[in-house]
Design a protein that fits this description.
heterodimer, A: alpha/beta, Transcription Regulator spoIIAA, 38% helix, globular, B: 6 helices
Chain lengths: 130, 163
Amino acid sequence: MTNLIVEKTARTPHISFDSAKSILNVQGRSIPENSLQFYGVLFKWADHFYQDTTEDQNLEVVFKLEYFNTSSSKCILDFLRKLENLKKMGVKVKVYWFYDMRDEDMLEVGQDFKEILDLDIELLPNAEKS
Amino acid sequence: MYYKGDITDNAISLIIEQMETCLDQEQAPTRVRKKIIYMIIECLQNIYNYFKDKPYQKVLNDESCLDIKNDAYSYTINASNYITDESSQNIIKKIEYINSLSTEELHEFYLKVLSSQQVSSSGGAGLGLIDIARKSGTKLSYVLAPNTNGDIYFTLQISILNN
């Protein structure tokens, strides 16, 4: 897998994948009008990872979102479902879901994802690790 | 804060920016600030998506309005725009159903829609009103005002308690 960088905008988060460390970061605001188009990058990335991966490979995915709209939440869930497929293939996937301690809604979304998905998702307050 | 005019991409960015400045100046608690910005984004993008493929309705879109007021206890968001009578009936049905649910039932309904529904080509995920109701923690209200052409001026009213 090659590195990936998508620069942030006022409406979309910064996305980066460090292939050496196998860490994918998604950070910032996610309020695009067209979430499907924006998250298409991540869907493609996950598909490529699926094709190139080997068993026992590690993958860390870090979400640090400030705001996101409901269409983004749906796209993020779809992306996490792709990570579920990677897990089924034997990839050791770990998701870190950061939230502002004063933002109960961001915490709840992380809890919802944990409830829906068969993935190792750790919920972390922003102050704990940045 | 008050805005009246067509809801364009630029207008949404401008309104969000100005509201953030207002909330900073008012030293609104982070919890409330996040909820308000979130609600505004959802309301404005709903209006934007509604008119996106209807450039011939620019005159109606020009009447779209966002009005945010606060007192010692809460913030109230009024988001208004013209919609068809048919659309208003669909939205009312949805709001009445959402309002009939308990907190736990609303959570279950949210998870069900989140898990099953696809993002539509118009950009909606069918979650907007459900999530607004969840995050506001209050029942949704609305006002309907028909005009002489049969269009409905629909206002969604959302309250966010300070505590």
